[in-house]
Write a sequence for this structure.
């Protein structure tokens, strides 16, 4: 029950869940999680194999029998990581530890006083990279440098002008494009947003 309260404020990418628990069983909890945290992947660990089928379709990715846990856990975990990587999630190093972040949730990265920050729909947090150039190698083509200290997710460019972009977050952040990158940024936006009607070109 404490976990249900906690999941409303925190993101969990992978949940290892038993079926038999006090107060609320794992099947019921998985149904609640679909409403509260639809992105969370569930892996059941239980002796009650027959009950797992009730929850499939509820973000249940896999099932491990308790007696096979030590033998199968590593492979199931690796399969889950690969699934996240292949489904538009990035594996990033932060000051608090390694995290998965959905590409669609990322607005931009910024470098301030030699510290790199991740700006998402949920928060702004520091990521553990020395330089943006190193980080950029791990990003998909949707991301672009608009100046030497900012990498933007093209999906979240709401307004473009020759020297700046406005991001589609609540604060409508205005980010400046360096003179030497203006042509490159325009070409990048036209390439990845040409069919998108939700961007203003000024």
């Amino acid at each position: 029950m404490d976990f249900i309260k906690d999941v409303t404020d925190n993101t969990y990418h992978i949940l290892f869940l038993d079926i038999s628990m006090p107060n609320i069983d794992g099947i019921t909890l998985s149904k609640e999680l679909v409403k509260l945290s639809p992105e969370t992947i569930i892996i059941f660990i239980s002796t009650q194999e027959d009950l797992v089928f009730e929850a499939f379709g509820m973000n249940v990715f896999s099932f491990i029998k308790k007696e096979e846990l030590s033998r199968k856990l590593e492979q199931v975990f690796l399969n889950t990581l690969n699934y996240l990587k292949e489904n538009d999630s990035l594996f990033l190093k932060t000051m608090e530890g390694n995290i998965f972040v959905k590409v669609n949730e990322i607005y931009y990265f910024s470098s301030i006083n030699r510290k790199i920050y991740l700006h998402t729909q949920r928060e702004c947090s520091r990521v553990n990279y020395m330089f943006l150039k190193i980080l950029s190698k791990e990003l998909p083509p949707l991301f672009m440098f608009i100046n030497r200290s900012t990498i933007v997710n093209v999906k979240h460019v709401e307004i473009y002008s020759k020297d700046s972009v406005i991001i589609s977050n609540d604060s409508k952040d205005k980010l400046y494009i360096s003179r030497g990158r203006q042509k490159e940024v325009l070409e990048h936006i036209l390439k990845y947003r040409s069919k998108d009607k939700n961007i203003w070109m000024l």
